[in-house]
Design goal:
The complex is a heterodimer. Chain A is α/β, with parallel strands linked by helices. In chain A, 40% of the residues lie in helices and 17% in strands. The model of chain B has no long low-confidence stretch (mean pLDDT 92). Chain B is 65% helix and 0% strand. The chains are: A alpha/beta, B mainly alpha.
Chain lengths: 324, 46
Amino acid sequence: MRKDVKNKRHTGLFVLLCIGVFILSAGCSAVFKMVYTPLQLRKYSAAWNEKVGTVYSDFSYGEKPANKFDLYVPADHTKENYGLIVYLHAGGFTTGDKKDDAKTLEYYCSLGYVTAGINYTLCTEQNPDANVYSQSMEIKKAMPLVVSEAEKLGCHIDRMAMAGGSAGGCLALIYAYRDAAEAPVPVKMVFEGVGPSSFYTEDWKSYGTDKDSKLAATLFGTMRGETIDPKIFGTEEYDEIMKPISPLLWVDDNTVPTVMAYGVYDKLQPYLGSVRLDAALTAHDIPHEYIVFEHSGHGLQNDNKQMIEYNKAILKYLDDYMGE
Amino acid sequence: MEKFWSKKRMFILIAVSFCGSITGRLAVRAVLNLLLGGTMIGGNLL
């Protein structure tokens, strides 16, 4: 009888132990998955210290509180000319900050480029008038000051690349495709991930725009900062209204070389838009790398192999188009 | 105590720990896929 009770107690304890071990293993492996960077991707980041470069924060380029940029300047001041890489932050045009990309900006600075992160007025309750167009115009306004401040810090800029992720990718494409002719120095290339490049109702299905044209008019009208009549979808008039924020509609024979990465299952912006952009760049014979993450969404989170490919392509394009 | 740590129980505990690790990784992937889009199979291992 006593032996039976003891056995039952042991079994109960063992079951509890199994539950504990399961929870602990699951928790540890979840944390590990979230924080661990694979070895092959670690080389695309840099240890940052004063021997690598210096960060100069919060230069103002306008009257609005968000009109600020940071400059990352390489420690080596011996070069006659420097290339500038502007990396614009993500956040769905409504959140985010230039500091979010500090690691990326540090990495490209460690390669010898002056890098800049620019904040722009986000579309929030406090700033209901902000939209993708106003943000793109703020970026355009910032650029001459970014170049002149770098000059004051001892780095003469003679070429630049635009870059960004998501909303930042969209704004980078807009500047590189729409505003390059007015840039203070030649824009040589652009690289970006998951940035929206066009606004067609049939592409933005995850928001229901293919079924509800009023919703589509509200969504795209808010992004553009214009009132859109749902009746004009599919017409040239719609393209004309959306052109100022649609990188796709600016692609021509003079478009700059482009490296872009997109996830097939993206829920936040349509993968189909990137297919259109790839086709347009191909049609105009523009050098470009279109890296498709077959198993990923907006975070490009499930395809490390493609992430390595994306980083390699960026470095190759920087060598080819941003070299001295 | 010697009886408590039988070979069978050790094996079960290792198997449970392995299942927990897989579940943890899959849970992170599932949550990210839910938020951002993506597949549960293919690409990175888990």
